[in-house]
Design goal:
This protein has 2 domains: about 180 residues, no CATH class; about 210 residues, no CATH class. α11 packs antiparallel against α12. The protein is elongated. Strands 2-3-8-5-7-6 form a 6-stranded mixed barrel. By secondary structure, it is an alpha+beta fold. The chain is built from 13 helices and 10 strands.
């Protein structure tokens, strides 16, 4: 065992010295593998980060929440989206929300939400395209809203239609760059509202709406000044299931309530949509499988180029060191020892190239995360996969050159001249 360990150690030292001495050959080998690893790991890193961001965004929507809306998020069974069937549907109403709140026994909480785009002003500061949201009671129980400064709307303020507001982080920074917003009065399309709280920064989200650029006010106040029955107000009813109630059970109850309230005939189709996050996640699973397959497809071709490059350079190395190989074998070196030298050299070259490719991927993730506002993480799993793939490519690429070197006749090798 000690002899085997010694042989492996000496083979590794010979291989490492060869890599250090032949700098140009090393750089050429590194380049091919670095490009291949960069291609495949960058694709997987982007796909993984995109999937993580999307699923995190979907989590914010809630897994036990049903959204009653006019438009369905997706078609069932992957069929074509038949928009013409939904265009004439009525939008959910405040009355329907109150009926659900009164009738439902499977709902933990129900809320009504409307939203539209407005311009917010404070003195000489102005922010356009602000998401102006009217909320009922219980919305904060269904959708987590963390308050950074001040407080949230109270149940009494919502019921009494008070002209007060909770503003998002970005709105607060834009309208009140040097002062505390709480207690100040803002204007939204001429309507005065007193700020009672500031929402903590949430950042950008793919599916769920970030509250950073939003203003929350009682829906009862909006109802007094704007027609919330129009589609432009995007009315929605949010319903959260009780702890031991499944989404399917809640959906069935909500379907019966909505059909009863809207007096839909037994043989008629629903004229409302019951949306939930699983509708999107099921579609995403297939989408990301395709992206991962594309990543492997791109990466394999890139790695083949790098692998052939290493094999070619290793064959050149065998030719250059033919005399050295002959001397080693004449002094008693076994085939195993000779073969290990070249295998170690090929693996070292490939792993170094993989490390360079991973460094390029990491640099790219840092630049994108800092400049684009989209978080991309090079995960530990992708790092291990990159090093593992590069090691495997080096091993496979070095087998043929190593075998040819190990089978050389020592006499012929010593007498070979170039």
């Amino acid at each position: 065992m000690l002899k085997l360990i010694k042989l492996i150690k000496e083979s590794f030292i010979f291989a490492f010295q060869s890599v250090i001495v032949n700098k140009l050959r090393t750089i050429l080998s590194l380049t091919g593998i670095a490009i291949g690893i960069f291609a495949i790991i960058s694709v997987f890193t982007i796909v993984d980060s995109l999937e993580s961001n999307i699923r995190t965004s979907l989590t914010a929507l809630g897994t036990n929440i049903i959204y009653i809306q006019k438009w369905p998020w997706t078609e069932e069974n992957g069929t074509e989206y038949q928009w013409w069937k939904y265009v004439n549907r009525p939008v959910p109403s405040y009355k329907e929300y109150k009926e659900i709140e009164y009738r439902s026994v499977r709902a933990q909480d129900a809320g009504f939400v409307v939203s539209t785009m407005k311009t917010a002003k404070f003195e000489n500061n102005k922010v356009e395209n602000v998401r102006f949201i009217g909320v009922s009671n219980n919305v904060e129980k269904i959708r987590t809203i963390e308050i950074q400064n001040g407080r949230y709307l109270t149940s009494f303020e919502i019921k009494s239609a008070r002209n007060i507001a909770v503003i998002g982080y970005s709105i607060a920074k834009s309208l009140f760059p040097y002062t505390d917003p709480v207690g100040k009065t803002i204007r939204v399309d001429g309507f005065k509202m007193k700020v009672v709280g500031v929402i903590a920064k949430e950042g950008k989200a793919t599916f769920s709406d970030s509250m950073d650029e939003s203003i929350l006010v009682p829906v009862t106040f909006i109802r007094n000044v704007i027609d919330i029955r129009s589609e432009e107000m995007n009315p929605e009813i949010w319903v959260r299931a009780k702890e031991n109630i499944s989404n399917d059970e809640l959906k069935e109850e909500l379907r019966q309530i909505m059909r009863s309230v809207r007096r839909i005939k037994p043989n008629a189709d629903d004229n409302f949509a019951l949306n939930q996050t699983s509708m999107i996640t099921n579609s995403l699973d297939g989408f990301f499988k395709v992206l991962n397959m594309a990543g492997w497809f791109i990466g394999i071709f890139s790695l083949l180029v790098g692998g052939f490059g290493i094999a070619n350079i290793m064959f050149v190395g065998v030719k250059e060191r033919t005399t050295q190989i002959g001397i080693q074998k004449a002094l008693g070196a076994k085939r195993f020892f000779i073969m290990l030298q070249f295998l170690f050299e090929a693996v070292i070259l490939s792993v170094f190239g993989g490390a360079v490719g991973l460094f390029l991927v990491w640099s790219g993730t840092m630049i994108i995360s800092l400049t684009a506002g989209f978080t991309i993480d090079l995960t530990f799993g992708n790092i291990l996969m990159g090093l593992g793939i590069s090691s495997l490519i080096g091993l496979i690429s070095g087998l043929a050159p190593a075998w040819s070197a190990a089978r050389m006749d020592p006499v012929s090798a010593i007498n070979t001249t170039f």
